[in-house]
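Mods, move this if it's the wrong board.
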Amino acid sequence: MAKLIPQEERQTLYRYETTLTREGVLIIRNEFEAVFETPCFYFVVQRYGDRNPWTWEQMEKEFQQSGKVPKTIAWNPVRKIRKDAYKTYCYADNQRAFDAFKIRQDWRVWRLSKQMAQAELALKYIADHGNAAAAAPSGPVNLGHTEFTQDLNWNEY
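Not the wrong board. Structure tokens:
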């Protein structure tokens, strides 16, 4: 069963993300607070400073009445985070959180590059065969390989 962590003992966990603003793309560090814990998990909620209307007394009272970890606290989702996980949503160590952010961005670039190469092949086909509905293929059309698929060994599957 989860136990409520006293306010003075709550741990801060971190997650880096990008966001688009008027000024451009920003890297932001989100802070999460471990509010409940079990032997293997923390239950965390994102910190918003003084804007969070949920008070410690309200949360403690509701937890003691129901005995369950709430799904949201002040309209913010409560996330279940494994304490010893290599890959998790947020990290107690700021450096690990930043390293995980870099890995996520590398994967993001790879996935989007693959999708962009496929979209470019499709647009090239449309440009070569006309944009009219009559030129639309009635079945599958082989557009060839992209730089991401040409080295795959399709015979092994």
